[in-house]
# Entry
Amino acid sequence: MKRIALAAVAGAHGIKGELRLKLFTQSSDNLMRYETVYVGGIERKLESVRPGPAGAVARIEGIADRSAAEALRGSLVEVERSALPPLDPGEYYHADLIGRACVDRDGRELGRVVAVENYGAGDLLEVESQNGKTSLIPFKPGIAELDGEQIVLDPEFLA
# Structure
């Protein structure tokens, strides 16, 4: 099963085993919809999540003290891809774009999506071309568009 990272453990919060999380989702509320998460690859029950000073603070079953929480620093907090909410037409999860082939309008392969970034002005696809160079391409109609299982993009935007 494919897992999707929703956060990373940034360290311990307090002495009772709570975890400071760096969120990869818009709010801590998005984590609360899951009873079960994978922390460092181990399935665990998510007991609570609340907003924190720089992300979120979570309590995970089986983590009862500061040293246990610190031991998880750098671990990913993941869920099964199948547990994510269904999408409306035209919506997508960034994780679903990674690895997709990028082609021109004639269907010639130009490369693959290796990452998706967003610095506030919209999604950017990091595309690795067949010669190994990478380019950041705006994921916007007319420039790069999702078409079935592939991304159709304007080759003028490649480095």
User: Anything to note?
Assistant: The chain has two domains: 3-83, 94-157. The two ends are 35 Å apart (CA to CA). The first helix runs from residue 29 to 32. The chain is about 10% helix and 50% strand.
